[in-house]
Amino acid sequence: MEVGACNFDTFSRAELLNLCKQKGLNEGEGATKLDLQVALGALEEEQRRWATSEENEMDDREEEGEDPAQNFELHHSTPVDNQEEPDDLDEAGSSVSSRGLSQADLGDRREERKLKVELDKLKLEKEKAEAKTALA
């Protein structure tokens, strides 16, 4: 069963079971090799989909002229009254929202989100490489 960059057919049942346990999957001892391959493949696909959807969401907002970091709280927090007080100015004269975040802070958050997505991808690649190395 070829899934993404990892060919789970080369793994033994015990190795697949161990990988499932390492990744927090609750596949039981009675699971067949195929069940384990499917579970790992589904996990890998879900991680890939999540990373892709995060990137696409940020790209879509950029194409629409929005700053994803600026709208982060609107999309990922509890609803708040949109009737906020007008922005104050800090000592440098830049705009500061009523939540106390400057445009630089919002840009930093955006960069942090991009870096987190990239880090998640790298962690997944590392896990795959470690699994392949353990089999060799």
Automatic annotation (TrEMBL):
<feature type="compositionally biased region" description="Acidic residues">
    <location>
        <begin position="54"/>
        <end position="67"/>
    </location>
</feature>
<feature type="compositionally biased region" description="Acidic residues">
    <location>
        <begin position="82"/>
        <end position="91"/>
    </location>
</feature>
<protein>
    <submittedName>
        <fullName>Uncharacterized protein</fullName>
    </submittedName>
</protein>
<feature type="region of interest" description="Disordered">
    <location>
        <begin position="46"/>
        <end position="114"/>
    </location>
</feature>
